[in-house]
Inverse folding.
């Protein structure tokens, strides 16, 4: 039996209600789910949707291992007796998101679950609440004692898959954060991941500059940093090509020429991916000692409580977590 933990994310966002809308039980088969978060907000959504309660409350995460496969809810003490309103994000909801994420990490670290699926959170409200992380990726790396330079953020779509060398720094800092070692690490992690998916086409690497530097006329990073990293990966037997201009390589990957693309920074990789895969891709953190997947979208405060949100990304996050855990 595989046990998946789900942290709701921001309670005022889409994380709790997506779970109520989606038919999660049918995905689990003979496996179990531990939901970490507020029972009140789940009850609110079920009441609004006219759906029955689909979980059993447990006092400790270990109880999910002692019972038959099913859906269980663990409510951390920090989240009890708090009232949240869909669409009304605040410092309080940011604090809640951070506390429940930490509780989820403790569950994974203690061995009570085999994989973690995370609901969306608001980074600004988490920072306001005192958490010093730019997002899930940085939080998880720190909690599990992994150098943040050794993890890799990856978005996995049906036809386009993208890894990022850098995650959420200001754009002005990106050139100074790119290194041969970090690119090589991301290539190793990405190549390993796509093999688990059964894919065998090469990984494509983006240049940092327009036209991939135009033979050094528009920047030196390609020749000085990116090309040596690609060569080092090839010497390890990894199928990788590049660096390519970012304005053309994603179309080639989408059409099947490459299994994945390694982008140098957030918007370089995620703008094209979300153009064609948004709402259907899965966020995966590569390089952690645990399996972690997530939706590819944010908290969606503007539609929270309307029950109009698409559950596809959440369902695929669960499917991928179960596949990787198995």
């Amino acid at each position: 039996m595989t046990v998946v933990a789900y942290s709701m994310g921001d309670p005022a966002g889409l994380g709790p209600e997506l779970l109520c809308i989606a038919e999660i039980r049918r995905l689990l088969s003979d496996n179990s789910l531990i939901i970490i978060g507020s029972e009140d907000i789940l009850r609110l959504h079920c009441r609004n949707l006219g759906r029955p309660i689909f979980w059993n409350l447990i006092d400790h995460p270990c109880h999910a291992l002692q019972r038959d496969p099913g859906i269980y809810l663990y409510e951390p003490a920090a989240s009890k007796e708090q009232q949240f309103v869909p669409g009304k994000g605040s410092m309080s909801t940011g604090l809640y998101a951070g506390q429940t994420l930490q509780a989820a990490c403790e569950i994974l670290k203690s061995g009570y679950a085999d994989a973690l699926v995370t609901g969306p959170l608001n980074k600004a409200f988490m920072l306001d609440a005192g958490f010093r992380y730019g997002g899930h990726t940085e939080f998880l790396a720190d909690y599990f004692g992994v150098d943040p330079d050794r993890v890799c953020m990856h978005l996995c779509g049906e036809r386009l898959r993208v890894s990022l060398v850098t995650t959420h720094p200001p754009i002005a800092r990106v050139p100074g954060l790119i290194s041969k070692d970090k690119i090589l690490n991301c290539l190793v992690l990405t190549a390993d991941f796509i093999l688990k998916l059964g894919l065998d086409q090469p990984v494509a690497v983006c240049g940092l500059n327009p036209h991939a530097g135009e033979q050094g006329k528009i920047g030196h990073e390609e020749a000085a940093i990116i090309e040596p990293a690609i060569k080092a990966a090839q010497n390890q037997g990894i199928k990788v090509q590049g660096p390519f201009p970012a304005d053309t390589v994603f179309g080639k990957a989408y059409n099947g020429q490459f299994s994945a693309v390694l982008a140098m920074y957030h918007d370089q990789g995620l703008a094209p991916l979300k153009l064609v895969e948004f709402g259907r891709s899965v966020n995966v953190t590569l390089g952690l000692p645990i399996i972690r997947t997530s939706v590819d979208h944010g908290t969606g405060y503007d539609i929270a409580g309307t029950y109009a949100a698409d559950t596809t990304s959440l369902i695929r996050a669960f499917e991928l977590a179960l596949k990787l855990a198995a």
User: Anything to note?
Assistant: The chain has 13 helices and twelve strands. The mean pLDDT is 94.
